[in-house]
């Protein structure tokens, strides 16, 4: 019990630090903004602690199937950290910020071709932005997109090479998929593959849809100010992380469907041998 409390507490602290990181590293923020960030960090920490301190999950999927959630958290954490360091370099120049911005600029320039996700994010720049602010949008987009691609690639290797999620033990379907309703009707194998395909399709489409939706919404409501460092950091992080998370979930569901199909095949073969 004590071990579980410590692990849940560490996860809660890390989640709170993730939410508060841009506000802590960047000096330009108002008192109201700091209070809002502190409240969000506290709520995220409490939800994380309650979720992991219990015996069974209620919302978080694949809680007992590492390293799925760990990889997603590390990817988001590193993305926010790198983008924060780049933004901090505007007021506190340093070698780390310059190196990260150089990588982001290189990737952003390479992916900035017509109809690419990076080009669509750059089109969100308004006419009153300076060339430097547009360059920051491109470098942030390139670096965050690179982080998401690397995360998906590593997860595919973990699934195929390291035989996730059964390498370390049996996979408990109902514990790791608490939001999946087994009584909804239909074959569970068909539903798993359908949900997996939907998640993968959405993951591929969202990098293109999010900039388009933001562009259309800016004509009706006040657009997000990408000149604000914290807004830019969270916008780019969400734009890159959400599609990657959906694709990873789709790949995980397909893997679970393959395991169930393989188990059914063995059960049917064993039943036929018993009949013979």
UniProtKB/TrEMBL annotation:
The keyword Membrane applies. The chain crosses the membrane at residues 9-27, 33-53, 73-89, 142-162, 200-221, 233-256. Keywords: Membrane, Transmembrane, Transmembrane helix. This is Membrane protein. It comes from Salipiger pallidus.
């Amino acid at each position: 019990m004590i071990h579980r409390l410590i692990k849940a507490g560490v996860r809660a602290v890390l989640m709170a630090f993730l939410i508060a990181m841009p506000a802590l590293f960047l000096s330009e923020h108002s008192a109201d903004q700091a209070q809002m960030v502190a409240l969000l960090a506290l709520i995220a920490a409490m939800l994380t602690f309650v979720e992991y301190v219990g015996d069974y999950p209620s919302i978080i999927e694949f809680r007992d199937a590492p390293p799925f959630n760990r990889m997603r958290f590390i990817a988001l954490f590193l993305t926010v950290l790198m983008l924060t360091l780049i933004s901090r370099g505007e007021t506190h120049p340093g070698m780390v910020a310059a190196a990260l911005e150089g990588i982001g600029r290189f990737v952003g320039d390479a992916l900035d071709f017509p109809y690419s996700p990076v080009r669509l994010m750059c089109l969100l720049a308004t006419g009153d932005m300076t060339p430097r602010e547009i360059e920051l949008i491109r470098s942030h987009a390139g670096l965050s997109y690179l982080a998401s691609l690397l995360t998906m690639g590593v997860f595919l290797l973990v699934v195929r090479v390291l035989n996730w999620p059964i390498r370390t033990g049996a996979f408990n379907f109902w514990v790791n998929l608490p939001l999946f309703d087994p009584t909804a009707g239909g074959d569970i194998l068909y539903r798993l593959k359908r949900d997996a395909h939907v998640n993968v399709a959405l993951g591929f489409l969202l990098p293109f849809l999010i900039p388009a939706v933001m562009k259309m919404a800016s004509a009706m409501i006040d657009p997000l100010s990408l000149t604000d460092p914290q807004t830019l950091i969270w916008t780019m992080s969400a734009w890159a992380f959400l599609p990657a998370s959906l694709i990873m979930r789709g790949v995980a569901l397909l893997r679970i469907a393959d395991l169930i199909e393989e188990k059914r095949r063995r059960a049917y073969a064993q039943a036929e041998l018993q009949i013979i």
